[in-house]
Amino acid sequence: KAPASASVVRASVDGAQGGRGYANNLDGWIKESLAIMKAKGIPGTYEGLHRNIMRESSGNPNAQNNWDVNARNGIPSKGLLQVIQPTFNAYHVAGTAHDLTNPVANITAAANYAAHRYGSIDNVNSAY
């Protein structure tokens, strides 16, 4: 079951995928991302994704960091897993939206990045 915060942000997300039979909420975005990740050979679990999402954005797909070094350099971290645009561009996964704040695209690109850098999103336990 999705945390309460997911239902709060559900209505405010423009262009969220929520397709292919998945709910348009945090639970659905994670499940849709996991299906894409499985098809593309990207490791990760529901627990690993959820834990990192809650730490990075509290489940808000519109979250944006306006204070760290990336923000000061003009490329703020955005979305559920707080990805910067260059990282999103480099690790974007085909079949997802070309939109950094799209929940499924953000999760899947971040998991792809984490797989290349740390072996899996499951191995990430702090800012990455």
SS strand fraction = under 5%
Largest sheet, strands/sense/barrel: none
Q: How much helix, percentage-wise, in residues?
A: 40-55%
Q: How far do the termini sit from each other?
A: 26 Å
Total beta strand runs: 0
Number of helices: 6
Radius of gyration: 13 Å
Instruction: Write down the overall mean pLDDT.
Output: 88
Instruction: Outline the low-pLDDT stretches.
Output: 1-17
Secondary-structure element order, N to C: HHHHHH
What class do helices, strands and sheet pairing give? Answer: mainly alpha
Shape: globular
Commentary on this structure:
With 128 residues, the chain is mainly alpha-helical. The protein is built from six helices and no strands. The chain has helices at 4-10, 26-40, 46-57, 69-72, 85-91, 103-118. It is globular. Residues 1-17 have low confidence and may be disordered.
Question: Brief overview, please?
Answer:
This protein is mainly α. It has helices spanning 4-10, 26-40, 46-57, 69-72, 85-91, 103-118.
Entry keywords:
mainly alpha, 128 residues
List the SSEs and their pairings:
Blueprint: H1 4-10, H2 26-40, H3 46-57, H4 69-72, H5 85-91, H6 103-118
Helix pairs in contact: 2-6, 5-6
